[in-house]
Amino acid sequence: MARTRSVADQLVGQLVAAGVRHVYGMVGDSLNPVVDAVRRTNGIEWVQVRHFTTAMSKEILGGGMGEVMAIARSSLRNVPRP
Questions:
Q1: What is the pTM of this model?
Q2: Which of 10, 4, 18 is nearest to 67 (CA)?
Q3: Percentage of residues of the chain with pLDDT beyond 90
């Protein structure tokens, strides 16, 4: 029986198709399925960060396109917004 693609697999597939090469975040809780999907997918890398502002600075200053993932808790207040 073929394995069906999870929502996390589909999300990561869309990120890769959009040109995202790095996903920054803190592993844990509701992001675990996304982290697993990133690790299984070629062309995209999970980057563990301690602070979301550091993650955004790396991508903005580096001229790349990345994604910052946060769970809807206290850490969401710290995610920079455009």
A1: 0.71
A2: 18
A3: 28
